[in-house]
Design goal:
- By secondary structure, the protein is of the alpha+beta class.
- The chain has helices at about 45-50, 115-135, 150-160, 175-180, and strands at about 1-5, 15-20, 30-40, 60, 65-70, 85, 95-100, 105, 140-145, 165-170, 185.
- The strands form 3 sheets. Strands 7-3-5-6-8 form a 5-stranded antiparallel sheet. It has a 3-stranded antiparallel sheet with strand order 2-1-4, with no helix packed on it. Strands 9-10-11 form a 3-stranded parallel sheet.
Length: about 190
């Protein structure tokens, strides 16, 4: 039995319930992760409100870090006690633990805290996709990064500057302009 945030109908934040939940043992190919930190992302509100549908009842959240508590049949890449993180692949990170497909987990390096890992995995993968796959940013280029003061923007702008690009960021307020500039934007 674990503590978890669950909901059985969509709506405002008052549909969320803090409950005792019977998390089963991990199935074949899954790893049970005991959470020490979770990521909170805007998409969680879309799941809660029903804009993006989930089968109900459901847990909430898709990003976390922690340690391996148990492994399911066939899992060889992870062992109990490994520090791991995940983003996507399993809804239910707003809980003490979650069962996650082993192929959605990454081992965490010693120099990275669980809190930082849980907060940046989704945003970091999004920044990587934009800067290295959509358009491989090169030194000397000038790019525009929208929402430069948001989570993805802060990572993306720093990364693009590190790659040698001049970064112009867009944002919505003077405080956010200062944040964008502090994270690599030449102009906002």
């Amino acid at each position: 039995m674990i503590k978890a945030i669950r909901f059985d109908k969509t709506g405002a934040s008052d549909v969320l319930q803090y409950v005792d939940y019977d998390l089963p043992a991990p199935a074949k190919g899954q790893v049970q992760v005991k959470h020490s930190a979770i990521g909170v992302n805007f998409i969680d509100t879309y799941h809660r409100t029903g804009l993006y549908t989930l089968p109900l009842p459901s847990g909430l959240g898709s990003e976390a870090a922690g340690s391996v508590a148990a492994v399911g049949e066939g899992v060889t890449a992870f062992k109990v006690g490994d520090r791991v993180g995940y983003s996507g692949g399993a809804i239910g990170s707003y809980a003490e633990a979650n069962n996650v497909p082993a192929d959605k987990l990454v081992k965490l390096p010693d120099g990275l805290s669980d809190e930082i890992a849980a907060a940046v995995l989704l945003k970091g993968m999004t920044a990587q996709y934009l800067l290295r796959r959509i358009h491989p940013v090169k030194a000397g280029e000038t790019i525009v990064f929208h929402a430069a003061a948001g989570g993805v923007g802060q990572i993306g702008c720093q990364w693009a500057k590190h790659l040698g690009a001049t970064v112009i960021g867009t944002t919505t307020s003077p405080d956010k302009v200062a944040l964008a500039k502090a994270n690599g934007c030449a102009m906002s």
